Amino acid sequence: QDLPFERLVQELQPAREASRHPIFQVLFALQNVPQEKFELPGLTLSKVGDQPVGGVDPSLYRLDLAFYLHEGDEGLHGFFQYATDLFDAATVKRLSEHLTQMLMEAVADADRPLSELAMLPE
User: Fold this and answer.
1) Is the pLDDT of residue 45 over 80?
2) How far apart are CA 107 and CA 32, in angstroms?
3) How far apart are CA 95 and CA 16, in angstroms?
4) Is residue 53 in some structural domain?
5) Do 39 and 56 form a contact (C-beta atoms < 8 A)?
6) Rounded Cα gap, residues 71 and 30, in angstroms
7) Is residue 77 part of a domain?
8) Number of domains in the chain
9) For residue 60, what pLDDT band results from cuts at 50, 70 and 90?
10) Residue 15 DSSP code
11) Do 65 and 20 form a contact (C-beta atoms < 8 A)?
12) Rounded to whole angstroms, how far apart are CA atoms 5 and 18?
């Protein structure tokens, strides 16, 4: 957070490959900062879609897997973005079901260690 990403890459000097992110391949992002209306005289701004890489062919996405979770007035909403040469829609759907199951168990018993939470329903 306190270090610019470019500086981190410069210091770590990871092996670079144009098709991959230089530091990590999986991302979980919780977008929980309130988004206030932004108004300027004579200008109307509106949000276009939820995906940060909207309109880009998913097979060109540089991360292997990303999960974006947004906090809104009606609860949490999220979506996955994934490299289609590594994952198919059925696999990502199954992953989302496992995550949902685990989160429901965590909410039901907040004192349970993560290692004891089931990812599969009974």
Assistant:
1) no
2) 18
3) 29
4) yes
5) no
6) 8
7) yes
8) 1
9) low
10) P
11) no
12) 17
